[in-house]
Amino acid sequence: MLEIKNISKTFNPGTVNAKTALNGLSLVLNDGDFVTVIGGNGAGKSTMLNAIAGTWRVDSGSIILDGVDITGMPEYKRAKFLGRVFQDPMMGTAADMQIDENLAIAARRGKHHTLKWGVTKKEKAEYKELLKQLDLGLEERITSKVGLLSGGQRQAVTLLMASLNQPKLLLLDEHTAALDPKTASKVLDITDKIVNENKLTTIMITHNMRDAIKHGNRLIMMHEGRVIIDIKGEEKKKLTVEDLLGMFTKASGSEFANDRAMLSK
Questions:
Q1: Which of 65, 154, 170, 233 has a beta carbon 3.0–4.6 Å from 89's, enabling a disulfide?
Q2: Which is it for strands 60-65 and 2-11: parallel, antiparallel or unpaired?
Q3: What does the angle CA 139 – CA 88 – CA 100 come to, to the nearest 5 degrees?
Q4: pLDDT values of the chain reduced to their tens digit, one per residue, 265 residues
Q5: DSSP letter at 175?
Q6: Contact call for residues 49 and 203 (beta carbons, < 8 A)
Q7: Residue 68 C-alpha from the chain's centroid
Q8: Rounded to an integer, what distance in angstroms lies between the CA atom of residue 110 and that of residue 79?
């Protein structure tokens, strides 16, 4: 579903502030893979997601999504293939619009627009059923402004919006990092449900090692802009945080450096 071939990205090239964020990164995701991504500070995790989404243009290499080379494709054209949830619960939704209106915008993304606007009764009924599955009581608040929701509720709605059109690839950029542990756990459970039921190919960046091990069918660890560890299947299920730290030290030759990850061990 996704093939990243030897991509590189350097910010501020040719200056004293030059920073290589991606260094010959290569990665292949099969259809339906749910990959968790972890790494030290400045490992290139978010830069990789931004490169896939088209936020940053890569300096070299190629990105192929479902057989289509999207390397030179502008961000707005990639949007119809991708779903994305950001770390900040305030992003990804229109705060001054109702829940059903936000869902309607997501449902119509990439489709031909007409002058007709408004959420139909049929759509409202469909959205209520979708919201009911979240088990947050939002189906009874479908006309509430999204800006009035809690961070966890908002991220749950954003997940629904991002997956509504069955994207070829779902990108989750530390989407629980701004939430308290209990709410984060709930949102991760909802994430599992949405990803598994829709069989979505997914990349989830997290700073929490336990979450990286617990969720998804595959785990990759990045260091200095490339993948140094790639674990899947039974090997991943048996992993412990201590195993992961030991593997990182062996593969990179250095200690793991991510304060938030170490605090969440």
A1: 154
A2: antiparallel
A3: 25
A4: 899 999 999 999 889 899 999 999 999 999 999 999 999 888 999 999 999 999 989 999 999 999 999 999 998 888 888 999 988 888 888 889 999 999 988 887 766 554 455 778 888 899 999 898 888 889 999 999 999 998 889 999 998 898 888 899 999 999 998 888 888 998 899 999 999 988 999 999 998 999 999 999 999 999 999 999 999 988 998 899 898 888 888 877 666 665 555 445 5
A5: T
A6: yes
A7: 20
A8: 8
Cα–Cα nearest to 82, from 178, 198, 162: 162
Structure tokens at 33: 């893979």
Measured between alpha carbons, how far is 46 from 234 in angstroms, rounded to an integer?
A: 27
Residue with tokens 């090997």: 235
Q: Which residues pair with 230 in a beta bridge?
A: 220
Query: Is the separation of the CB atoms in 175 and 85 below 8 Å?
Result: yes
Please tell me the distance from the alpha carbon of residue 265 to that of residue 263, in angstroms, as a whole number: 6
Buried b / exposed e over 90-119, threshold 16 CB at 10 Å, is eebbeeeebbbbbbbebbeeeeeeeeeeeb
Taken in order of first residue, the domains within the chain and their CATH numbers are 2-81+167-263 (3.40.50.300), 95-166 (no CATH)
* DSSP single-letter state for residue 183: H
Instruction: Note whether 37 and 227 are within 8 A (CB).
Output: no
